[in-house]
Amino acid sequence: MTAGSALLIGAFQGVALVPGISRSGSTISAGLLTGLKREGAVEYSFILGIPIILAGSLLNLKDIGGASESIGILPLIEFHYKFF
Question: In 3D, which of 61, 63, 83 has the Cα closest to residue 71?
């Protein structure tokens, strides 16, 4: 894979910001357009998604503290023991 191919695939990932456009679908399509085999395009697409998923998770971590204060710990403990 060349740097130009990687940039093109990354640009297609940016297109997925448009509602209704699949991130994995757009990056797999771009990978196929750049000459990657299907398996390579799928693998690269999912590897490319790891930083985005981690960044989204980190952004949501700030909300966890506020949620536990409003819910309280007792319902969480009770829920845990009902199912285990």
Answer: 63
* pLDDT tens track for 66-78: 555 556 666 666 6
CA dihedral 48, 53, 56, 62 (to 10 degrees): -140
> What are the DSSP calls for 26-47, one per residue?
HHHHHHHHTT--HHHHHHHHHH
Residue 33 makes CB contacts below 8 A (sequence gap 6+) with: 8
Convert the pLDDT of each residue in 8-33 to its tens digit. Answer: 999 999 998 899 999 999 999 999 99
Question: Terminal CA-to-CA distance of the chain, rounded, Å?
Answer: 48
Tokens of 23: 């991130």
- Cα 81 to Cα 1: distance, rounded to the nearest angstrom: 51
Q: 35: which 2 tokens?
A: 């000459």
